[in-house]
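Problem: given the chain below (840 residues), write out its structure.
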Amino acid sequence: MDVSRRWCVLAPPISFLVHPPTLPVAPIPNVFPGIRHCCSVPVLLEWRMLDPRSSVPPPISPAACPAYVDVVLPRRLHRPFSYVIPTELKGKILVGQSVIVPFGSQLLHGLVIAVHSRLPSGAPGRGLKAIRSLADASAEESLTSSQVDLSRWVADRYAAPWGQCIKLVLPPVGHTGRIQPRYFPTKQGLTCLSSLEEEGEVESQLLKRLSRRRNGLSAATLAQPDKSPVTRALQALIRKGLVFRRDEAVIPRVSRAKKDMTKRVRPALPEKLALDLDTCPPAGAASWQTTVGQAVSQGTFVSLLLQTSRDTRWWYLVKAALDTIRRGRRVLIITGDVENASRLAESLANAGERPTLLHSGLSARDRAAAWLSVQDPEARILVGTRLAAFAPIETLGLVWVDGEDDASLKEEQVPRYHAREVARRRAVCDRALLVLASSHPSLESWSAAQQGEMILCVYRDPAATPEVQVIDRKHSARGYMADTLLSPPLCDGIRKSLQQNALSILYLNRKGFASVLHCRDCGAMPQCDGCRVSLTFYKRNNHMRCHYCGRTQPVPDHCRQCQSLKLEPVGSGTERIEEAVRRIFPQARVGRVDGETIRHSADVRAFKRLLAAGDIDIVIGTQMLFRLGLHSQAAFVAVPDADAGLHVPDFRSAERMYHGLVDAVELARPAHSGGVVIVQTRFMDHHAIKAIAHGDDSLFFEQEQAFRQMLRYPPCTHLLKLDVSGTLEPVVAEAADRWKALLHAQVAGSEGQESKEDRRPVVTQRFAGVSGDAKKIVILGPSPAPHAMARGRYCWQILIKAVSLEMGTEMVVQTLEILERGPRRGGLRFDIDVDPVAMG
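Solution.
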């Protein structure tokens, strides 16, 4: 998808006559060599918006001094802007540098993406704004061409504004700096120091002071009252052209000591994992090392899909990383959560390496230190969350994505990139080995392996799996399970585990005591005023909470609709399960792990200390359990309601259900050590339940693939989710209908349709060169989103299914540009999510 250039001008696109005697103007640059500008006749100037697809700038002569630049700004804009290079900065501007430019009434940081020695074709001869100054950034903070290209790729791949994507490749501290003026002497000011003494002592002393400061003086240093002699002298020197002002960014600096400290971190590794790494190679270790060695030595892009348990794939990771380093190349490891990143770094530290850790859990200064330290050739391994996918680490030989199916790898805010796909792009550009590792691969990766696009490596030890029992809730004791979800077999399993002084785990991915409070007389349920969703009931804190906006309300004593007193909790969450377990097993020590009990990393460490000391007998929790490192530690694991979250309006609900069940099974010991897993469900014939019961992934993947193929959902096609939101529901619905009409016009290839709102022609095109299958586009909607109102904003959705991602994103961006030129009543906003992982 091409990205157009928009010229930043001082006036709207108009044509007019300029007569020098009546309207003084700045001289027009001589863009035609050999032709002199004549000021005795009127000059016709035309300023217009251009598209580089129809007009390409002329090639740059190496000997020419660039005078114009294209700059990408950190705003929701899909096009760069052109600026003039001022005289004092000519020869100092390079691609990848950060500059400060005027944009409307603001001064913004921008990134230079192109330089031109001549006025680009079609640009206005005058009216272009000039760069204000270079940003106060060191050479090591400048972007390389590969970083600029990566940001451009993200913008194209995810139909995101390029200015937003530039932020991803900038150093983390680059977004928090403020603008501060600094003052410098001009060349003329330096040459007339002696003659200036006759004009004024204050001006002379100030100019001499500035001449001795190589980096100039800041406005804070020269701060004086408005009518002080120094302030008046400074303004006089500026008017005479002897001093100029430059606005620079104040960026927190990271000391070299801080960077070195980041690299010296060597966390201790638990003894159990250390022994596994050295003396207990898993099955298939020899074939794995051979596969990795051949892939890294080829020096070409190779993609592997590794499916095995967590501890086993970490063993494989360490071996692959060491092999890559021995061959003189570097390693990038990406995972979905902070805790997992820290454990991976510990594994590599135990193997004698010194990994750099980069994730959002670090302070801003520590993230900056890690970002800068990876540019050092001695930094051979970088471990981090999705932020690390954009770190400036070069000469990659191995790119490893651990837990490639984790939804945390998908960014929820603009630009909505997926770190797995960014990792793939980096591996392709660096001709590195890409390993996507998981206990349960995503359907996209599994499908790619089935089609030969990836090499599938499955390493399993049947002896390491626990015994799995599936219980049909429909035929169990209804009265016993209605309140607690604790069936007699489940209670028996907990009791046996307590007798053995072993750990029991109950997994239920629902917080709170009950999903809703329900009126038995009229059926009404309390809802959030800002989101129009049912409020979750928390019994311990005696309040109701919205899981979207976080608002809380006190528990009512009667129904607001019919004034009935018959309000009862419906559904079970972790808090309700905990209450039932404490009632049935009063002597057991019970711990709960969910968003209410684990809010900070300190809470995680405290809970781990309790587990290590043996002070907890039963753990009840949501999917947060899987981030505590409890794999293969429980004698008994139960899933009281395996169907939770299955029936939601999301085509990935079955896949998420299956992944949660696989993770729960991994928490149990092997069967020969007494490990037992009980799964309770009402859908015994569901393909996810059958796959868990038989320990056969293919039962799930093949059936799910067939469903996706029939309904044309990913990975069989690309999906684009278009959200239209605002505070006025009729305006939102009308805008969604208009977007749909523009999309249908694009697909139909209509040209010159008149838009009723802005009377501008809707420019559409047929996508030449695209085969018949790629031209198939399905547009669904618009309709209210699954949660039609969230945080006081109404939301409508349009879904686009496109075989050709390039065609789909180009069509959406073209129509979005038309919509954004129209009125924006009610805070109207348009959002694009390419290949979303959640439909809510």
